[in-house]
């Protein structure tokens, strides 16, 4: 309106009209055609269809993007879902529309992808690895290193339909009717403050909302980046806590092992001392009865064997004798 100097209603205009005031309307300005060329084709009758206006600004028509063309071909063998929408088969862009909206949905997707390429945003089609029942593909765009999934679908209206069953009587069913209105939806979680759905309205078609969608993707990329950084930080903290927990458990295990070893050594030392006291009692009794015990006698050999056995289980004797022998 400002470009063509079209006048706007002054403040309070509509309120005055509501109460019956008659406000004079200023005339529209004459459209300047210095940048246009008018071609009139010869005809016996004046027909507006024979008048063609060409501006100097030429519109470049480019072929569809390869992903769009591939998706168009994959729409042919598809079947409608319960909502009456078709989805392309195999590795295709994520689009769900009725038959009459396929061309427009592909055109919108073509505009979006070409805008992505100008911004160096890479579009790819990836398989849903969580679904093992059938092949399901996602459309995602790489915005500054963050992958964001999105799709285009047609809005449908739900209509209640009553059917009569011979056995059960009247039954309420639903019928889904196409609207021709498209919606683009961001499937990746990008927080609550970022717009995730853009739909056709009476005043604006979806084509006019592509710029808003692309701007929202930039905000979504920042959100995903911040969330990824926070998750990586949280992951590092968890890993650090896990390492500290394992180190503490290892220290505790070693301490308990040392205590068990000490208890075992104490038990062995006490057992060795009991054996030595027992041997000493035998020697005293034998000396009192038979006098001096000969080392080569049967009792002397037995006493020597028992003393060696006691020494072998005595941790103090074994430790210090080894150190003395090594020294």
Please provide a written account of the structure.
With 327 residues, the protein is α+β, with helices and mostly antiparallel strands. It has three domains: 13-55, no CATH class; 66-230, no CATH class; 256-326. Helices cover 43% and strands 20% of the residues. It has six helices and eight strands. The strands form two sheets. Strands 3, 4, 5, 6, 7 and 8 form a six-stranded mixed beta sheet that branches. Strands 1-2 form a two-stranded antiparallel sheet. Helix 2 runs antiparallel to helix 3 and helix 4 (210-290) packs antiparallel against helix 5.
Question: What integer value in Å does the Rg equal?
Answer: 45 Å
Described by the principal axes of the CA atoms, the overall outline is elongated
Query: What is the percent of helical residues?
Result: 40-55%
Question: How many domains in all?
Answer: 3
Q: How much of the residues is beta strand, in percent? A: 15-25%
In whole angstroms, the N-to-C terminal distance is: 105 Å
In terms of quaternary structure, the protein is single chain
Structural class: alpha+beta
Q: Count helical runs.
A: 6
How many strands?
8
For the report, how would you describe the main beta sheet? 6 strands, mixed
The string of secondary-structure elements, in order, is: HEEHEHEEEEEHHH
Poorly predicted regions are 33-59
* Average residue-wise pLDDT: 81
Task: Give the helix/strand layout.
Elements: H1 13-18, E1 36-40, E2 51-55, H2 66-74, E3 95-96, H3 102-118, E4 122-127, E5 137-143, E6 146-165, E7 169-186, E8 197-199, H4 210-290, H5 298-313, H6 315-326
Parallel strand pairs: 3-6
Antiparallel strand pairs: 1-2, 4-5, 5-6, 6-7, 7-8
Helix pairs in contact: 2-3, 4-5
